[in-house]
């Protein structure tokens, strides 16, 4: 099992140990405000390979590079004016920008899977302090086996990757609980590659641009991680349930009971008070809890589609997609 260091109790030891392990070319699980990441030195091909290996992730799926400040970002990518405004407004935070990689950038091509762009983000929380001390960008996908639910706690990481990992930094439950929103600016157009923890409406409000959404399933895969069947629990998933069938696990939203609940394996409410922010923070943990109940199917009650609901529903549709 991996060593877990609580960053709230031993911040200095956490940073030092993390940097030592990273310098050895080994991945470390780090807490970000979105989900826990599996981080490695983005400039070292062997270290990046270890991420793909540990996750069982296809190598054509590029990784996000995490930076501690704008200066570090500027050493690796070129900002257009719209992307710069987004970075200044929303970093550190749950926003990933896809930007052209600079020729001088030392981020290895394995991190970008050979693309000429980099996905780049300045995370909030303890991980940013680790990057600042390490002094180089960290490539980090979510710290889960490829295709499974992203981890929002150190315990989730330990249960999934603990036997392969050396070190997990524990900063408590992830504040946001959904992966970052990914956008790409092209010729003054703003495209949403993945809905996530930053509400797309906030991006539109800041830039005055209408964000373009990907076509429904089947469109060109621009963020290759967005293949169908992703974020999958072990159980089957049934969406928009208006009643619970015997033995199903139920995850609902908004505090209202559904018919048939008495016969459910477990009933969880993402936010009894109807907060989408709270629902996002609870989503992955509740999916894991429902899975652990042993039910063959997890039924989800209806969830509003505005604001963060867009990203929540996106993850649920992927969880419900036919498994490949
Ligand atoms: O919140 C997050 O974004 C978390 C934390 C750890 O930062 N990371 C995360 O990474 O969700 P991952 O690997 O699970 O998802 C990264 C997504 C993938 O869908 C990948 O295809 C896309 O980012 N991506 C990365 N670089 C890209 C690029 N150059 N062009 C297009 N998509 C890119
Ligand atoms: Mg992931």
Strand order of the largest sheet: 2-3-7-4-6-5-9-10-11
CATH architecture label of the largest domain: Alpha-Beta Complex
CATH topology of the largest domain: DHBP synthase
CATH superfamily membership of the largest domain, which one? DHBP synthase
Strand proportion, as a percent range, falls in 15-25%
Low-confidence parts: 216-221
Let me know the average pLDDT. 93
Structural class: alpha/beta
Number of strands: 15
Q: Largest beta sheet, briefly?
A: 9 strands, mixed
Distance between the termini: 30 Å
Shape: globular
The helix content is 25-40%
Highest-level CATH class of the largest domain: Alpha Beta
Cofactors and ligands present? Answer: threonylcarbamoyladenylate, magnesium ion
Q: Compute the number of structural domains.
A: 2
Run of helices and strands: EHEEHEHHEEHEHEEEHEEEEHEH
Q: If you compute it from the alpha carbons, what radius of gyration comes out, rounded to the nearest whole angstrom? A: 19 Å
The total of helices stands at 9
